[in-house]
Amino acid sequence: MKELSVENLHVTIADKEIVRALSLRVPRGEVHALMGPNGSGKSTLAKVLAGHPDYQVTKGKVVMDGENLLELDPDERARRGLFLAFQYPSEVPGVTIANFLRAAMQSRLPEGEELEATDYYAKLYEKMELLGMDRSFTSRAVNEGFSGGEKKRTEILQLAMLEPKYAILDETDSGLDIDALKTVAHGVNSLRGPDLGVLLITHYQRLLNYIIPDYVHVMVAGRIVRSGRKELALELEERGYDWAREDAAEPALRR
Ligand code: ADP
Ligand code: MG
């Protein structure tokens, strides 16, 4: 089955259970939005999928195209086609984007295999064209003095170059100005297709005006309380997370 599937996942950090019985399936070719109030555990989920060592999985399964992800190192997860937007260096003075991306791609190749410069640049320019990016952009140092939008451009270009099977984009609430928002949206929309599954984590309904997701999931207090089609995002905007929360509360928690 070509999907990224999370089943009954429980995650603990510092003895606190942050993710509780979370299940979610992202088939290849679909864009799933994960929304939810601050502190609901969205970023924790993203970090666990990436293999962050601080988070302890106490129960559950994560399977990517039939393979148990939790047994793999973060590096191996990436090699097998998982992309996480936030794992990149925030600033790398003196290293140009072109060289940074080249190193990232080289590191994905089997040992002894060399990335040809001409092939690399051909692909780089092809992807930049697809994304509508200016070529001069790649001669700048990674994230040095970048605006939010420029950081996102680097990220999206990396996504385009690495051609992962699944991308998890954690759009945290800080620093997403309209320029950044549009860059992410344009990038995801240009790259979406049958070979890519996307889990788009956002706290902003606004982003979903630009990226129309196939499915929307609402996460509250560590689990998915609601899933639906794109209209769910609109309903949430109108009625707020409390509505999703109340309806989904366990009987014992209801007053
Ligand atoms: P979201 O991304 O939905 O805003 P987070 O996953 O960042 O939520 O956080 C969920 C909860 O986990 C919060 O209560 C947060 O304080 C806690 N948490 C996250 N990371 C850590 C950490 N490294 N140490 C302790 N608590 C953490
Ligand atoms: Mg977060």
Detailed description of the structure:
This protein is of the alpha/beta class and 255 residues long. The protein has one domain (3-246): Rossmann fold, CATH 3.40.50.300. 34% of the residues lie in helices and 29% in strands. It contains 7 helices and 12 strands. The protein has helices spanning 42-50, 74-79, 97-106, 117-131, 148-162, 178-191, 231-248, and strands at 3-13, 16-27, 31-35, 56-64, 67-68, 82-84, 92-96, 141-142, 166-171, 197-202, 215-220, 223-228. Strands 6-9-10-3-11-12 form a 6-stranded mixed β-sheet, with helices on both faces. α6 (178-191) links the parallel β9 and β10. α3 (97-106) runs parallel beside α5 (148-162) and α5 (148-162) runs parallel beside α6. It is globular. The N and C termini lie far apart (42 Å). The model is unreliable at 251-255 (pLDDT under 50). Bound molecules: adenosine-5'-diphosphate and magnesium ion. Adenosine-5'-diphosphate (ADP) binds at residues 13-14, 18, 36, 38-44, 54.
